[in-house]
């Protein structure tokens, strides 16, 4: 297992280009299975999660060719309705295969993501929605087995999601485009990555629209065709670099960062006193002399994304005073702060809702609010990365810390950030891969 050696203190400057969005590209690769004709996606990031998704498509019998940032999927030769166990714990994508597999084979076998017991990150919304569209789904031996009764196809219906889940919304869309009749998804997720998926589906021949009050309306069609589509830039990667730039960048140009997809992040940056300039093809972020403390609540789009929380908390460790962050999307997304505290940060995690948004975790004993007291100088440490977004905040911590940190678990970062070492080096970071 290789490690990263990062020596803190170097100022970042210059330009970094943001890659295509992981959370759009992986879903769009799956959407390509809805037609026999070739679908070409460009700006597909070369990261762990797209590699695993491509392997999964190939294992199902699809032909997948990558040339640079372009990936062409031809699904006409698909042979199997089963995603094997080998893909069960690699990422969240297998659960999205129900629609494409059911419309092609009338059956699907998909490994449970983390077991059938409803625990953290459950898929109950997905299953309830697909059942209401006519799929019989049972869970046996760690596999979901879905079937459409003989002579039937999935049928459109009205689905009211208990929470605007990104994955459940995408799953229903992928099933609804080829279902019989109209499907309405109420209280749906409307993240930019989902809009991007809708754009691809429309290019493939789907009839899909975003209606008032976060509702998607999808009129099923009989067949979809091939298309070409450019994946949107990754707004999580853009925000991660912006947070790093605000702390240690003299002037960093984040090329391809989309202002419109990052409004709430940019508002938060401005509130804490970080200067940025919007340019025609990106956003320039300048180092803040003084960072002001703030209060922040994560939310579904158009709110402040839960995936921006970790780099932003990192930024707040250097703010002049007490900041509060209320995480309302996931019940337990502050575990990573312990390692930051070991480096010198002062972050306490609380079970109370420290915010005013309606939150599903009220009185649920979930550690979902954080109080961050800054500024605290950080010192280098030996750190193991537990997950993707925590990973980037550790990189930022090491970049501002005194001394050389040794970081393991970099495969988590490489799941979602393309060429991360080269990109940081290109900005002047002192970062080396070691054993
Ligand atoms: N939820 C349920 N039941 C369900 C589905 C979701 O209770 O059936 C809950 C979840 O437990 C969570 C909330 O609803 O508390 C939101 O989950 P959502 O379904 O929206 O998340 P997801 O689709 O599993 C995607 C991204 C995440 C991102 C979230 C929220 C992908 C592959 N993952 O996850 O990204 O945090 O949406 O925006 O698109 C990441 O990129 O690092 C990452 C974790």
Keywords:
2 domains; 13 helices; binds uridine-diphosphate-2(N-acetylglucosaminyl) butyric acid; UDP-n-acetylglucosamine1-carboxyvinyl-transferase, Chain; 4-stranded mixed beta sheet
Could you describe the 3D structure shown?
About 1% of the residues have low confidence. The longest helix is centred in the middle third of the chain and has 14 residues. With 435 residues, this protein is of the alpha+beta class. It is globular, with a radius of gyration of 22 Å. The chain is built from 13 helices and 23 strands. The strands form six sheets. The chain has a four-stranded mixed β-sheet with strand order 21-22-1-23, covered by helices on one side. The protein has a four-stranded mixed β-sheet with strand order 2-14-16-15. The protein binds uridine-diphosphate-2(N-acetylglucosaminyl) butyric acid.
Can you lay out the helices and strands and say which pair or pack?
Elements lengths: L2 E5 L4 E6 L4 H10 L7 E4 L5 H12 L3 E5 L2 E5 L23 H8 L1 E5 L12 H9 L3 E5 L2 E5 L10 E3 L5 H11 L5 E5 L5 H12 L3 E5 L3 E5 L7 E4 L4 H14 E7 L7 H9 L4 E4 L2 E5 L8 E3 L11 H8 L4 E6 L10 H6 L3 E5 L18 E6 L7 E3 L3 H13 L3 E5 L1 H5 L5 H7 L3 E5 L1
Parallel strand pairs: 2-14, 3-13, 9-10, 17-18, 21-22
Antiparallel strand pairs: 1-22, 1-23, 3-5, 4-5, 6-8, 7-8, 10-12, 11-12, 14-16, 15-16, 18-20, 19-20
Helix pairs in contact: 1-2, 1-6, 3-5, 4-5, 5-6, 7-9, 7-11, 9-11
Bound molecules: uridine-diphosphate-2(N-acetylglucosaminyl) butyric acid.
